UniProtKB/TrEMBL annotation:
Keyword Cell membrane on entry: yes
Gene coding for it: atpH
Lineage of the species this protein comes from: Bacteria, Bacillati, Actinomycetota, Actinomycetes, Micrococcales
Classification via InterPro entries: ATPase_OSCP/d_CS, ATPase_OSCP/dsu
Function description: F(1)F(0) ATP synthase produces ATP from ADP in the presence of a proton or sodium gradient. F-type ATPases consist of two structural domains, F(1) containing the extramembraneous catalytic core and F(0) containing the membrane proton channel, linked together by a central stalk and a peripheral stalk. During catalysis, ATP synthesis in the catalytic domain of F(1) is coupled via a rotary mechanism of the central stalk subunits to proton translocation. This protein is part of the stalk that links CF(0) to CF(1). It either transmits conformational changes from CF(0) to CF(1) or is implicated in proton conduction.
Protein name, per record: ATP synthase subunit delta
NCBIfam families named among the record's database cross-references: PRK13430.1
Membrane topology: Peripheral membrane protein
Length: 270
């Protein structure tokens, strides 16, 4: 995904991430509802064309997707409405973007319940276990095998064990391969986990050095803001505007947010 579509996806992820932090363990439900939307888009070319038509009014497309989702969680409807209002370089990119948000929702639920590391390890082991199983790999993604049978095979591979998020994702990768080989989807999920892990590290560039107590207090402030424990890494640069710059994964806390954290900065300096 490139160009306009990539920009639309990044913007959607930025809007959805605070929702996922607030949702906690409910993220898995949001993800499953978004998967249903992916399935609807994949099964209907006319729907994809309608929802990605740049000449169609955004409000009309948002109303259509809201009707399509019916009794889905309002947070899912809002996320989907934002996606269909955006611009897409290709109609297939919309379904890819919805899937990306769905994967993120399930992984965020694992992060919330403290099983994200377990999910990463289980997906890694699953991929390794399939390395020498060519026929099994084929059965997990080939269109000639019914989706239910592919999902059941993935369930048997998990053997009823593992984190809930792992089982959901392992089955989803088989039920809806979307043109990808099974192990490719597992690899993609591992990449998404790596990105999510990076968001637990806050790189703080400060105009002056922070001592251990100040770093700990800043870590507490960021943990409350992001809803999870944060590891603080401090770089010193006397030219930093405002005296403090914080980056968590791809997100940079800009001057507007820093203004709201000004009182925290003063406490740190005291």
């Amino acid at each position: 995904m490139r160009g306009t579509s990539r920009a639309s996806l990044v913007a959607a992820e930025g809007r959805f991430e605070p929702v996922l932090r607030e949702a906690g363990a409910q993220g898995r439900l949001l993800g499953e509802q978004l998967f249903a939307l992916v399935d609807a888009l994949d099964s209907s070319g006319s729907l994809r064309r309608t929802l990605t038509d740049p000449s169609a009014a955004g409000d009309a497309k948002a109303a259509l997707v809201a009707r399509l989702l019916g009794a889905a969680d309002p947070r899912v409807v809002e996320a989907a409405s934002g996606l269909v209002r955006a611009r897409w370089s290709a109609e297939e990119d919309l379904a890819d973007a919805v899937e990306q948000l769905a994967f993120s929702a399930v992984l965020a639920s694992a992060e919330s319940d403290g099983t994200l590391e377990q999910v990463a390890e289980e997906l890694f082991r699953l991929g390794r276990a399939l390395a020498g199983q060519r026929e099994v790999r084929r059965l997990l993604y080939e269109d000639s095998v019914h989706a239910q049978a592919r999902g059941d095979l993935a369930d048997r591979l998990m053997n009823g064990t593992g984190a809930t998020a792992t089982r959901v994702l392992a089955r989803r990768a088989a039920v809806a391969p979307r043109g990808r080989r099974y192990v490719a989807t597992i690899g993609h999920l591992e990449d998404l986990i790596a990105e999510r892990r990076s968001r637990t590290v806050a790189t703080v560039t400060s105009a002056a050095a922070l001592d251990a107590a100040q770093q700990a207090r800043l870590g507490d402030i960021l943990a409350r803001a992001y809803g999870r424990e944060m590891q603080v890494q401090v770089l010193v640069d006397p030219h930093v505007l405002g005296g403090l710059r914080v980056q968590v994964g791809p997100e940079v806390i800009d001057a507007t947010v820093l203004a709201r954290l000004a009182d925290a900065r003063r406490r740190l300096a005291s």
